[in-house]
Amino acid sequence: MAEKIFHIKVVPNAKINKIVEEKDNFFKIKLNAPAIENKANLALIEFLSRHFKIAKSRIELIKGQKSRNKIVKVNL
């Protein structure tokens, strides 16, 4: 199982969920979830699981629980 670390900048309260920028291990992702009560973090994990076609349990938010800049570990 390959493990990758991604740096992600999240833009909450967007109209739709989409990746707006992608470079090597960096993503800028717009999410329609608000940045309150962990909703944006849960939406990010859901979005990444669909993007990589893996289970949500294989995605871990390492850093940035309360920040727009996040570090995520993905077990591919």
UniProtKB/TrEMBL annotation:
Listed GO CC annotations: cytoplasm
UniProt superkingdom: Bacteria
InterPro entries listed in its UniProt record: DUF167, YggU-like_sf
Protein family (similarity comment): Belongs to the UPF0235 family.
Protein name per Swiss-Prot or TrEMBL: UPF0235 protein A2Y67_01160
Lineage of source species: Bacteria, Candidatus Buchananiibacteriota
